[in-house]
Amino acid sequence: MKGVLKLSILAVDDSPVITEMIRDAFSAEGYKVMVAQDGAQALRMALENNPDLIIADISMPGMDGWELCSQIRLNPFTSFIPFIFLTARTEAPDRIRGLQMGADDYLTKPFEMDELIARVHLIFQRMRKTQESMLVRGQRTLSGSTKEMALPDLLQLFGLNQKTGLLRISKLGLPTGRIAFENGKVIKAELGPARGEKALYRLLRWEDAHFDVEPLLNDERDPGLPVSVEETLLEGIRQMDEIAQMEKDLGLANKRLRVAAPPPESGLSPREAELLRAASGASSLPELLDALPWTDFEIYRMISYFMRKGVIAAG
Question: How far apart are the C-alpha atoms of 164 and 186, rounded to whole Å?
């Protein structure tokens, strides 16, 4: 689950009427909804987008719901995703087969949308209680995947339960991130050379990572911290949304940046001058983000400003 972030649902049915009904109903409830028309498309989307829950019809052309559920459960990256079958079949053997395959629920057509929404809410409530109990029991160590328990959830649970500990987050090919808590507040964060808010908000954007929770052995604090988990999540969500929009508007993916028309340095703020000096050689966006000490969001905003002015170009 994604804490205060939008939970995502993948609806799979060869009937566009059904998928649009589900999209409309769950979007109104605050969920992010993706739709697929068959099992093969749904499997690709599940691997790429890591939905929090899948609602799928059984009878579909090509890969049907049975095979989709089987593939979801066999893949270690998707095996934990809750799965609800929607079907016109009412026979008990079909229900038993679905549950044996690891489905979390089974609803027959025609169905009431309110009932489907209620069942989805119950599944997420059970997940939340399980996650909370893991921390409330006061286990000395806790580990898992952010696919099973998203980082915002971990942060929120540390805050709600006023926990003290060290959260280590690792991802293949990247430095290990560390977030330290004391009585439910974030007191330190680091990720490679990044420290404090820069590391904290960058880690919030990580998906498909491994985490370990350990005892906190020192009380060193970062300047500007501690901050409450609620503040961290709200600001992190705002920054992620705005960064995503800037990336889309500016087309920065896989582009190198260069200073195309340097302005007089006398008219620049110290930060602006430092950014342009860092970008004076052709730089990729990740290199520029690592080279400067400010949060990724602040750097994106300055790059966006300079690109609109024609000072920085991407290519």
Answer: 9
